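Q: What changes when uracil is included in the input?
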Amino acid sequence: MATIILNHPLIDHKLTIMRNKETGTKEFRQNLDEIAMLMAYEVTKSLPLQNIEIETPICSMTGKKLVRPIVLVPILRAGLGLVDGFKTIIPTAKVGHIGMSRNEETLQPEEYYAKFPSCLKEADVIVLDPMLATGGSACAAITNIKKRGAKNIKFACLVAAPEGIQVIETEHPDVDLIVGALDEKLNDKGYIVPGLGDAGDRLFGTD
Ligand code: PRP
Ligand code: URA
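A: The predicted holo structure follows.
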């Protein structure tokens, strides 16, 4: 449907802190959490609304309410770093989880966990992962979610390579893609350049 590159000054500022290899776990997490709140505002901009009649203390009026429930689906592990920020802005959101691990040699995604709320089919689903590199993990996660009946899907990522964007646009043209920053390319190990390294490892302090 649409690919939106946010290029937001606050996101760019915070992302630069995250990109810096001297930035430790605490600051990395904190900045990702803050960016998630900014992204939540942007990602939800196009959600459909319906009219609702209410009484204010002054008079009757036609207000607005969201048409559908919202389900967040972080791709484990690194997607977890975006959940709290999104939940701060959308506290009623339900959360599904999908575990994807990218095989370091083949770069193919391997699914190891999936659990979703029962309202997935009728929900606005926002899939979360800070990194879109080859696009394999995001593509497989979206395919899984569609198989379970989800129809209204957005994919939100912080850093994307052009290769990953191309894959999602081709394989899932019905999915809105919201990207914090578009980077240059992938290196020969499938890492985003300049990127921020391995998001999961930096978020959880593993290596
Ligand atoms: C990272 C990242 C994405 C994926 C992107 O996860 O969080 O899910 O790689 O790469 P791709 O677009 O080429 O598939 P990883 O598999 O390293 O797992 P982790 O989050 O547990 O570290
Ligand atoms: N996964 C990451 O965490 N970083 C990359 O640059 C590519 C895939």
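Observations recorded in class: Residues 75, 77-78, 100-102, 107, 109, 129, 131-138, 164, 190, 198-200 surround PRP (ligand 1) (CB under 6 Å).
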